[in-house]
Amino acid sequence: MKFRNFKMVDYVVYGRGCFNQLDEIMTPHRKGSSPMVFLIDHFFEGKPLASRVPLRGKDRVIFIDVTLEPKTSYVDRIAQQLKDDFGEISGVIGIGGGSTMDFAKAVSLMMTNPGSSADYQGWDLVKKPGVYKVGIPTLSGTGAEVSRTTVLTGPTKKLGMNSDFTPFNQIVLDPELTANAPVNQRFYTGMDCYIHCIESLQGTYLNEFSKSYGEKALQLCQKVFVEKDHWDNECDDQLMMASFAGGMSIAYSQVGVAHAVSYGLSYLLGTKHGIGNCIVFNKLEEFYPEGVAEFKVMVEKNKIDIPQHITKGLTDEQFDIMINVSLGMKPLWENALGKDWEKTMTREKLRALYESL
Ligand code: NAD
Ligand code: ZN
């Protein structure tokens, strides 16, 4: 048995208002006059947060369009632009949801590794550390702030740049930044965390390390989405820690059926990660009976719309594309259903599941 020796984020600061310490935190990492580059979720263009970033010298702000999940071509374009404009930069700071944080990790890596980010979609293909990178979440749930991957859609696949060079050097967890997220979005991204917990805790890869973090994250999600009857600061505080702990849980285990199926939706239909997971999880009673029952309670209680019939009218060919993408996620299926997963999850069964969405 060989145990995974995983790289973690170097520094973590947590607390309401800790965003104000960013200037002080970054200063030792400034290299001469090379700028720091702030990659900010386009939602914040013209909003107060954008004017709070501690700019010095040649520092630059670039707003990142996250209407679609990050693409390798977009990452390459921004990295090339920074190389053309500055040669070297001191670091990148990603401020936003999982999409922006993934984008920042990828740009950091592409400042030092040659070629296209598409060349590094896979496991341990990245050769060199990127530039200094900071992640600052404005939505809680994905765990992208702690993970060793950055999910990108490339010319041939949707797959992360998984490597020991991928985790952030610093994360700034300031729950004030998630305060005004729209109710539906906050729920979809929060449920990414809830689903990570269920999939990790019921998976065959589980060990005590994953279980400890997974149980805590699950408990925090339940406090926020089941027990509370209105949203307040404590919910933002708790969901931010749930996301962190949920990410730590899957660092040592794996996600499961909802993620494997949702990847197919996202590849074919462009369905975003959080909402896609919700659409799928809603139909997974057979695999996660208690989790799905509680999920339905949370949907009801928080008055959330989960889209229905999204695969209606698709062709056989389109179903096959989703099935192929999904069955390609072998570790997820193995974690969910064990070594003999292929006997349980046949193409016919998966087709029926996709048709039910
Ligand atoms: P997101 O980053 O895609 O953002 C969703 C929407 O919310 C966007 O329109 C954005 O502009 C907006 N938004 C962000 N913060 C806001 C705020 N405070 N107020 C109002 N609007 C705000 O959403 P997400 O669910 O956080 O991230 C999903 C992405 O994360 C996907 O691309 C997925 O692949 C990735 N992901 C990565 C990992 C990882 O380990 N790297 C894990 C899970 C998901
Ligand atoms: Zn997820």
| DSSP helical segment count | 14
* N-to-C order of helices and strands: EHEHEHEHEEEEEHHHHHHHHHH
The third-level CATH topology of the largest domain is Dehydroquinate synthase-like, alpha domain
Largest sheet: 6 strands, parallel
Give the overall average pLDDT: 96
Number of domains: 2
CATH superfamily of the largest domain: Dehydroquinate synthase-like - alpha domain
End-to-end span in angstroms?
A: 39 Å
How are the secondary structure elements laid out?
Layout: E1 11-14, H1 22-26, E2 36-41, H2 48-51, E3 60-64, H3 72-86, E4 91-96, H4 98-110, E5 122-123, E6 132-137, E7 151-153, E8 158-162, E9 170-173, H5 183-201, H6 208-227, H7 233-251, H8 257-269, H9 273-281, H10 289-301, H11 316-327, H12 330-337, H13 341-344, H14 347-355
Parallel strand pairs: 1-9, 2-3, 2-4, 4-6, 5-8, 6-9
Antiparallel strand pairs: 7-8
The structure holds nicotinamide-adenine-dinucleotide and zinc ion (ZN).
Can you walk me through this structure?
This protein is of the alpha/beta class and 357 residues long. The protein has two domains: 11-178, Rossmann fold (3-Layer(aba) Sandwich); 183-356, Dehydroquinate synthase-like, alpha domain, CATH 1.20.1090. It has helices at 22-26, 48-51, 72-86, 98-110, 183-201, 208-227, 233-251, 257-269, 273-281, 289-301, 316-327, 330-337, 341-344, 347-355, and strands spanning 11-14, 36-41, 60-64, 91-96, 122-123, 132-137, 151-153, 158-162, 170-173. The chain has a six-stranded parallel sheet, with helices on one face. Helix 2 (48-51) links the parallel strand 2 (36-41) and strand 3 (60-64). The longest helix has 20 residues, at 208-227.
